[in-house]
Amino acid sequence: MKNVYINSVGSVSAQNTTDEADFLKEIISYNDTTIPALNPNYKDFIPPAAARRMAKGIKMSIVASKIALQKANLETVDAIITGTGMGCLHDSEKFLSAIIDNNEKYLTPTPFIQSTHNTVGGQIALEIQCKGYNFTYVHGSNSFESALLDAKMQLELDEATNILIGGVDELAAHTILLNKAIHHIKETPVESSKVLNSNTKGAIYGEGANFFVLSNKKQDSSLAIVADLQTFNTLSIQSVAEKAREFLLANNLHPSEIDALILGNNGDVEFDTFYSHLATTDFQNVQQFVYKPWIGEFNTASSFGLLLAANILKTQCAPKAFQINTIVSSQYKTILLYNQYRGENHSFTLLRQC
Length: 354
What we know:
Layout: E1 5-12, E2 31-32, E3 34-35, H1 48-51, H2 56-71, E4 79-83, H3 89-101, H4 110-113, H5 119-128, E5 133-137, H6 143-156, E6 162-169, H7 173-181, E7 190-191, E8 205-206, E9 208-215, E10 224-234, H8 237-249, E11 260-263, H9 273-279, E12 287-290, H10 292-295, H11 302-315, E13 334-341, E14 344-352
Parallel strand pairs: 3-8, 4-5, 4-6, 11-12, 11-13
Antiparallel strand pairs: 1-9, 1-10, 2-7, 6-9, 10-14, 13-14
């Protein structure tokens, strides 16, 4: 089977990731319970008249996907595969509010049409005139991993050459209130650098769109090879390290051969134990990074983790603010990512240097 390369990335997040010149050079610290994504200059990518009718999630995705395509020197792709946990929340809330406010009468259909989860993939396809395979995965916090796995299998079997994949989720006011009520979002603001030591329930929520051009043909711009991916619905804390060992063994690797471990810690005292168990057992002598304190937690936040890992492998440099231990690797050839959300939807992703 053919190798699967990450040939380019495009990102709109709470950090400086849109402009390549400023990419993660100055890490922004926040002190809040939610972290909105930084707005790029949308009119550089979308006609203003069209942008006014789009929710933030759609706009972020179009910008991120166009940046990824530009970096890969492509105008279109063979397929578009999107992962999203909650879809276009803003338009969903807008339509549901209109139902209540107007007593189910005289409803404008536009928010309903744009509230469906596959709106993002459809809008991107219209923008780049892609008439190929277009699929959206809504698998909770494994939504992006499902999109990545689909693309990986198609490329390995040579069913496509270039595939655009992405993960996107947005914040919306009413959903934030609901998540605060059930203690999924922290009650009080926490500084980004102190999130992991907050010792409280809930996470700092965020939003963002991270898109990648995957291909079975290597380019000069290629960042990394997607070597393997495995997901689990549920795992016990004690079995996480065992599954990680089995995953690496299937790829002829030992934990000591991993140059960096990228974890999805979000500061939730009830569930970060999954990460700490892995970090303090087989991988205690491996350089470790986290990213959610700086971009927030959302269902497809792991797409930012993949972006971070691919960038580290390409540049051989890593943001010091993201590191959580004192070990520093001399080089980065193999990186393991582990993510879960509230004890469910566990994933292991293995990247190799090109």
